[in-house]
Design a protein that fits this description.
By secondary structure, this protein is an alpha/beta fold. It is built from 11 helices and 13 strands. The strands form 4 sheets. It has a 7-stranded parallel β-sheet, with helices on both faces. Helix 1 packs across helix 6.
Length: 304
């Protein structure tokens, strides 16, 4: 297949590109600037363009069977009003431009895999959430809902739209673990707030495999929770990560008010969370490589 990816040079996109090219798919990676010497797997090419702006790059979308839209500024940042604007524009404008470009595929079999997030559901305590659960009303939930609505417009061209709601992605070269592991290696790991908040996660190997699986399922569309079937509480994540790294956790929990002072509104994402289950994936017969977080962390952090 010919596959077009926005956000393909990021943490999730880089891993996905390697998996796609290993299976002999042809991949076009949209990037704002082509940097000389940047490594690229065989079977992948760069296309220069800013996805938040209409441009010549859109003409190339029509030559691809699949579009994977991963572009968006990282949520792991202090949320000022200016940064919240960046979070919205990087997602909504990119998706709007991608959908416009997909009009060239009208009448052809085409798939749009659009990233979203489990933040769609808002903050919950112990309630189990699946794809039929309602959206929340906080900033991240509203952003995810608006993002998905932009993607859904591609159905007007006959495009099969899959809205993939990512949990926190665990990988060895970026993402949440890059923030956590250095502190834990120094013995500075500790729970956040009460520690009882749920952490819905997925291993990077599973996420790439899930995206490929969904593309191959000809009848699948709509929302799909991309999370492991066994979410964990923050306190258990802290304990397991420390054990995998051979470290102890003796520090008290980080007070919630301190996190909110440091991270602003993003502190709520770390202190609250939601318990999200991948019911649709399981019903489709997808088998997780890493259903349990201890196995995922061991695979990622103890490779020697």
């Amino acid at each position: 297949m010919n596959i077009f990816i926005t956000g393909g040079t990021g943490f999730v996109g880089s891993h996905l590109t390697r998996q796609l090219t290993r299976q002999s798919h042809k991949v076009t990676l949209l990037t704002r600037s082509i940097k000389p010497g940047r490594p690229l797997p065989e079977g992948a090419v760069y296309l220069e363009g800013d996805p938040t702006r209409p441009g010549p790059w859109q003409e190339q979308v029509g030559f691809h069977d699949v579009v994977v839209n991963l572009a968006g500024a990282s949520i792991f940042h202090r949320w000022t009003e200016e940064y919240k604007k960046s979070l919205r524009e990087s997602r909504l404008l990119t998706t709007r431009n991608v959908v416009t470009a997909l009009s060239a595929r009208k009448g052809q079999e085409t798939v749009l895999v659009n990233a979203s997030a489990v933040g769609y559901y808002g903050f919950h305590q112990d309630e189990e959430l699946d794809e039929d659960s309602l959206s929340g009303d906080d900033f991240l939930a509203t952003l995810a809902r608006d993002w998905e609505e932009e993607a859904a417009r591609a159905a007007e061209w006959g495009v099969r739209v899959i809205r993939t709601r990512f949990g926190i992605v665990l990988g060895d070269k970026g993402g949440a673990l890059d923030q956590m592991v250095p502190l834990f290696k120094k013995g500075l790991g500790s729970p956040l707030g009460s520690g009882q908040q749920w952490f819905s996660w997925i291993d990077q190997e599973d996420l790439s495999a899930v995206l490929l699986f969904l593309i191959s399922q000809k009848e699948v569309s709509g929302p799909i929770n991309c999370t492991a079937p066994h979410p964990v509480r923050n306190v258990d994540l802290t304990k397991i990560l420390a054990e995998v790294l051979g470290k102890s956790t003796f520090l008290p929990a980080v007070p919630g008010f301190m996190l909110k002072i440091i991270m602003g509104e993003f502190g709520d994402v770390l202190l609250k969370g939601q318990k999200v289950l991948p019911r649709k994936l399981l019903s489709l017969g997808y088998t997780f490589r890493f259903p349990f977080i201890r196995d995922a962390l061991n695979s990622l952090l103890n490779k020697d």
